[in-house]
Amino acid sequence: MKPFTRVLSAFAVGILLQGGVYLYLDQYMFAPTTEFNVSGASKDDTKNFPNVKEGRKYVSYDHQFMAVVTDDSLRIYKAGESKPTTVNLKGRSISYFDWMPDRNYAIMGLYTDNKVVMARLNADDPEHEVDTELEDVPKGSRIVDAAYSEATNVVYMKVKVREGAYRIYRTDANYDTRRVYMQATDIGRIAVFYDEDNFFYDNAKTGDIFMFNGIEGGWRVINPPGRYRLIGVDTSKTIYIGRVDEDNNVITVYTGKLGVGFKPVYKYNNPTTLSEVTMSTVKEIIANGSDDTTKVTEDNEKSSSSDSSTNSKKKKN
Known about the structure:
By secondary structure, the chain is of the alpha+beta class. Helices cover 18% and strands 42% of the residues. The termini are far apart. 30% of the residues are buried.
């Protein structure tokens, strides 16, 4: 075999091996074990823990830990054990808490009068806390929500700076933390793909839904014409949105993907409060139906939208 041919063959084998390793990491080691954007705990989740009355309860993805959170305290219980570990908050208060969707780490929003901190907490070693302080935030700001991308280790934080006004901050695996400037301040729900730095949020005032690329910095509106609010995204990278009326009550639920578009899946027989339309309730209705909803197609949804628009104009006149 000629030297050039041997080199070319070795290069091809190297590429194949590298591709195989990447595929394994992407599909197995870094594959998410649960969906995200799920906070808190159900009654069944807490059956292996003490019946604690005080505080909000959060159970980790593998049900091995339960956090009991108040504004000024945090206790971590291990499954089958009655004595918790009390975490020293060092004089700070908690504005946000949730477990990461694929490991026994928690994301916390902590604050004092002058500081806002995002903390990552190891449940196996609660004293081992990694803090990331947000810079240049107005006094009185609070972290109120977070979206975590499992495979990329990117976290987006929704920070309330005053009533009805929010900012988005982004941090990555290297703890490089910065404010990301969005096309809205009245930000509603947020979400991120589990394996891509594609961030989603909605403008509560205008009813537009945006996708922001954290690597390239570009953004675009992704919803069809009309008023919509973000419901969430799942691990198949399906995006769930809701068409809403002027009071932000959900009328119809849509699903879609980037580059493909959205289609309606069902409508509520009566407009439904946005807070009641969560990823878990929507998936349950899609799977099993509901007496409160009706399946729809694009054709009858267009007809319904036209009727609603006509009725709205009549009311204004």
